[in-house]
Amino acid sequence: MSLHPLITLVNDRDVKQAKGFRLAAEKLTGTSLEADYQTEGKNTPKRSDEDLTYLNVRVGRKAKARQNNRDEKHLAEAIARATSGDDPLQLELPTGETLTIVDHCVPIKTAAAEKEKGDNDPNAGVEDIPMLAMIGEDRVGVIVMKFLEPDATRSGAGDTPLRLFLQGLAHAAVVDANKDAFSAEIQAACGKSIGEEAPAVILAASPRYWELCRKREAQKGAAWIRELERLAREIGETVGTEFFFVGLTTEATEESIGWDYDDEGAKLSGGIIIDKAWEAGAGKLKPKPKPKKLDPADEIIEADPSKPLMPYNIRDSYQRGDRVNHKTLGEGVVQNITGRGKISVMFGEEKKLLIHERP
Fold first, then answer.
1. 10 Å Cβ neighbour count for 141?
2. Helix (H, G, I), strand (E, B), or coil: what is residue 176?
């Protein structure tokens, strides 16, 4: 059994498949994910035990330009810079709660994974938390990000909403398991204390990403949205983790996609807009329209060749398919008995209402 069941799910082939992640989501429940959450937290590396910190750990060179597969990392850095300092950018969730960015690219590992240990290495497969934040005054949250430009035509290989969902849950388990260490560092960094609630998860992606994901599924993405919302509700009941699905828009300029670079790394070139990822009720499947019942009155009855052509007389009785000859209207075919003493007759392409069985 893996030390990191949530990370194993994150890398599962079906979870990463654009055409298969909805079916993978259907197999998950809040109860099964609660067990994985507890196992994930139990086996997460403990940086505090190694005298290592979580916040403000910076390694490598500062980015000077856009790089392949680094958009989310650079955007997170740009947002973190914009929300700190003397004139910080104020962020707010669609629910109206304030969002205070604590740090970005938060390390979890205590050391590089050792290949020879395989899955028995607590550091195996563990990734940094993209962004750490405080929601309101005392709720800690992890932010998982996905950035796409407005004219993007693909959402990225393997980056399905379910994969981001599970990645966020795995990060929440890490923060929960190391709550004391995180609480002390957050208190020192921004003066906020972590309350008793379980860590929240914010899935923040470009509106274009959500749009492309919805185009993959029938009925405008209702099926997978319904499954993610279900899992979010069930996890809220079992673990206590709340999920926020939001669209994150950068104010692009002619020179940049929303951020550029200086000597300190990535820097926002405009503001940030945070909105709901989808409209209320998007996860409800629209019922398929029932096939329209054919009105007998609209059905064309062909003449019964076995029946003789009869002269029309208001005193005679007629049945469907009878051939009648009207003095002025010509030859016709009885279509229906439309009421007491009445019949509808098709003459060419015109239907007429006539009287029959007159006493």
1. 28
2. helix
pLDDT of 340: 79
- CA 302 to each of CA 35, 142, 296, 323, 334: distance values in angstroms, whole numbers, following the listed order: 68, 71, 13, 9, 9
Q: What single-letter DSSP state applies at residue 312?
A: -
Distance separating the N- and C-terminal Cα atoms of the chain: 90
Beta bridge pairs of residue 325: 311, 331
**Pairwise CA distance, residues 73 & 61, whole Å:** 13
Distances (CA, A) of 190 to 101, 194, 220: 9, 11, 41
Phi, then psi, of 223 in degrees rounded to 5: -65, -50
Between 161-177 and 222-238, two packed helices, what is the crossing angle to 10 degrees? 10
Q: Are 92 and 103 in contact (CB under 8 A)?
A: no
Instruction: For residues 249 and 269, give the distance between their C-alpha atoms in angstroms, rounded to a whole number.
Output: 12
**pLDDT tens per residue across span 154-173:** 887 789 999 999 999 999 99
Q: How far is the C-alpha of 320 from the C-alpha of 312, rounded, in Å?
A: 14
pTM above 0.90, yes or no: no
Task: Look at residues 226, 240, 298 and name the one whose alpha carbon lies nearest to residue 38.
Answer: 240
- Please give the Cα distance from 131 to 104 (Å, whole number): 4
Domain ranges of the chain: 5-276, 296-355
| Residue 170: both structure tokens together | 């795995």
Residue type (1 letter), 350: E
- Cα 288 to its chain centre, rounded Å, is 21
- Closest Cα partner for 323 from 311, 341, 339? 311
Cα–Cα distances in angstroms (integers) from residue 71 to residues 61, 178, 273, in the given order: 16, 28, 17
State mean pLDDT over 212-236.
85
